[in-house]
Amino acid sequence: MSSRISSGLYDHMFRYIIVGDMGVGKSCLLLQFTDHKFRHQHQLTIGVEFGGKTIDVKNKSIKIQIWDTAGQEAYQSITRTYYKGAIGALLVYDITKHDSFDNINKWIKEIKTHGSKDLCCMLIGNKKDLEEQRQVKYEEGKELAEQNKYLFLETSAKTAENVQEAFIKSAEKILEQIEKSGIDPTLPSKNVKITIDDDTENNNEEKKTCC
Ligand code: GTP
Ligand code: MG
Question: How far is the CA of 64 from the centre of ligand 1 (A)?
Fold first, then answer.
């Protein structure tokens, strides 16, 4: 662990939003990323939940704040209000439910309509451990991601396969965008800012529910 992380300092803070149909495993991905835990039962997310963690990416300390949204239609107007503040988006489907993959187009539309134009998106096919129940081929996911110039990974929130990688690869791409475009990272309107963390006790981080 870098001394900057252990002392509570970080170079950038990236806000991510996780979207996708109900039950695809969004909250489990977050829990696996932040706490290395898996929850067997489906606890419906109400509105939006928050989680976060600071990681090292390309020799930089990146504080990642994550908004885990409800897949349920009823909460969409609430979750939309969070899109604008995000620089990273994970669009999640369940590889054992083709419907959840078909609906990704709906989530892409949501993101394009309500998200920032700088949003860095990753398509995620979750529940990779359930290979025998697979309904969505790896190639289908990869193709859709390529069409939209998104990153792509298949993950398992249960076995943890590719979960850390998903967050790290997105952060790497956001860092590259910052370097390439020269976006001023201190501008709050760009959602990427350099800040000194005053909460040194709480590095592995806050988790609370809203709405
Ligand atoms: P909403 O909050 O309702 O939108 O759902 P969600 O997308 O947050 O789903 P959640 O993370 O609560 O997971 C739904 C169910 O899928 C739970 O029973 C999890 O245990 C299960 N699940 C999530 N990820 C995986 C996975 O990678 N593999 C397997 N086998 N089960 C998973
Ligand atoms: Mg959830």
Answer: 21
Give tens-digit pLDDT for 36-79.
999 999 999 999 999 999 999 999 999 999 999 999 989 988 88
Mention every residue, 6+ apart, whose C-beta is less than 8 A from residue 122.
Answer: 88, 89, 90, 91, 145, 150, 151, 152, 153, 166, 169, 170
Question: How many other C-beta atoms are found inside a 10 Å radius of the C-beta of residue 63?
Answer: 21
For a substitution probing ligand 1, which of 29, 32, 42 has the most ligand atoms within 8 Å of its CB?
42
Bridge-based pairing state of the strands 88-94 and 209-210? unpaired
Mean pLDDT, residues 170-180 taken together: 91
Look up residue 130 and give its amino acid: L
